[in-house]
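Example (one chain per record):
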Amino acid sequence: MTLQEPTRPGISNKARELMEGINTDAGKDNIWVRTQMNAPSQRAWFADPSGTGTKGTGRVAIGQLKSAPCRWRWKEYKGYLDRLSRIAAEADVPPIEFADRQSILLTNPGLGGRLQVTNTIRCAISIYNPGDIAPAHVHSPNASRTILSAKGGYTNVEGERCEATRGDIILTPNGTWHDHGNEDKEPVIWIDMLDWPLMEFLDCAWVDQEFKPGIGSNQKSQATIQTNGYSEALYGNGGLVPTFVSHQRGWGHEPAPYIHFRGDQIRSALERLRKEAGDPHEGIQMQLVNPVTGKPVFLTLNYQAQLLRPGEETQLKRETCGTFHVVIEGKGKTEIGGQTYDWEPNDIFVVPNFVWRKHINTGTSDAIIYTVSDSTLLRSIGQYRAQGKDKAGKVIQLVQ
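Predicted structure:
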């Protein structure tokens, strides 16, 4: 004799409706009764060959945000900086006095108005008039300045004065006191990059401005202990690291002590390698590293610079990291998820994670692009993946 399964009550077709009824009450107690499959906003990278960055749907995904491809043109955002500069120059109390900065922040259309360009990166573009000073401060996020104007004022990091020009990248690792200012005759413009959204998500983002500058000539600024070029003299010799100094800067963990990467040196390094075959998906690319550890400059963000030769077209690539790009030289276009964005100097664009992209240099001279991504963080937690396509369009695993 075969035992049969007992017949289940005929309410299965009403189960969802009944469970949603529970949610009417449960919501008041900050509880949700699960009524659908887990549907995250991002499809599995290997199961979404289109690579267009389509966002998922459903109760679980609806609360998640996914960055979208986006471009910010210099000829458009420069106008806002000019207006801000005029207001600051004519105001009785300049914005820097009540807002701490004179800057615009870029917002990604996929992130619901949040002050971030990717899920982990914030980007502000600051303009400082002659005589402006941003008071000394310290914060938990890692940050950097990328100089867009011919001259870039100065940044003082833990007492080291960094006088900047176009294309320079100045690092302010978390836990380092720093201040900025402009002693030139014209306004200066730079990009502020921070892993602030990540720190906010982890609930450990904070800023302190209660700095005691001691013998400094200005009570807003640190005293200059080391003159311009100090970290470059110590760490700017490839393969050689001094043994007679402490490499600690501030109180962060493994802070990058080489804090001032000069634009002309980055350009020269790329140009020396321009006759190499390069990477089919990146062209000639170099990484900024901590010379003491050999690791990326920050534990969260990865900084790179790449050169594309005239007419060079990279092959398609996608990564599990979100990537910020700023054009330093040249002109071209980038295809992101099937959309084409042209670019020229100082233009900025974002490539979201999992989305296919390729770069094309459409100009008659070399193009140089700086990138910042959260690939460092993803590698450290085992979540970095990359795929490419060969010339025949076949998907190949680059990092898995």
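Caption: The radius of gyration is 24 Å.
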